[in-house]
Amino acid sequence: MPSTLRAFVAVEIPGDLLKTLEAVQSELRRRGVRARWVRPESMHLTLKFLGNIPAGHVAGVTDALQSAAGRLGAFRLTAAGIGVFPGVRRPRVLWAGLSGAIAALAQLQRELDDRLVVAGFSRELRDFHGHLTLGRFSAGVDGGRIADVVASYASTIFGGFEVREVVLFQSDLQPQGPVHTALARAKLLAPASPG
C-alpha cells in the first residue's frame, strides 16, 4: 500500500441498477448529450470524499465507519429522475436522483461526518445531496438542451436498492478512469422487522 492514498466513503450500487443507468447513458448519447460518462463500475453513492490520506489513517477511518454504521438500521432508496449541478444554466454534473428513505441517508452522512471529524477530518461544509453521478460536462454545453433532457426523465424510476453497509474505497486514478478498491466495510444494523 502506498504511503498516501486517495480515499472516499460510499454506498455500493447493485449490478442490476448499474445496468439500467448504463442504458440511460446510452440513450442520452443517442440523443446527442455529450459528456465524460462515468463508467458503471465507478458509480456509487458518495457519502464523504476524504482526499489524499496517509495509509496509517485507514484504521481510524474504518473505526469511524463502524461507529456510524452501528447506530443506524438498513434502509431503502430508489434511483429516479435526472438532474444537474449546479443548474441547467451552467450544467457541470449530470446525475440520477434518489428518493425513498432520504432522511435516513442524511442521518447516515451526518453520523459519518461527525465521527470523521473526531478522527481528524474536516467537516463537510456543503449541504449533502445524495445522487449517482452519470457524467460531467465541459464548459459551453447547451443548457437548454440539457433542461429538455432532464425534464423528459422527471418521472422515470430506474430501480431501488437496500443500503446495508458503507464502504471505504481507495481511488487509483488511471488513464482509462479511476479504479476503486474496497479497503473496509461497515454494516448497518438489520432493519427492525415489522411486527
The major pleated sheet works out as: 5 strands, antiparallel
Quote the distance from N terminus to C terminus: 47 Å
CATH topology: Cyclic Phosphodiesterase, Chain: A
Structural shape? globular
Major β-sheet strand ordering: 2-6-5-4-7
Describe what you observe in this structure.
The chain has one domain (4-187): Cyclic Phosphodiesterase, Chain: A, CATH 3.90.1140.10. Helices cover 28% and strands 36% of the residues. It contains four helices and nine strands. The protein has helices at 15-30, 58-69, 102-118, 143-152; strands at residues 4-12, 36-37, 44-54, 75-85, 93-100, 132-136, 157-163, 165-172, 179-187. The chain has a five-stranded antiparallel β-sheet, sandwiched between helices. It has a four-stranded antiparallel β-sheet with strand order 3-1-8-9, covered by helices on one side. The radius of gyration is 17 Å and the shape is globular. The N and C termini lie far apart (47 Å). The model has no long low-confidence stretch (mean pLDDT 91).
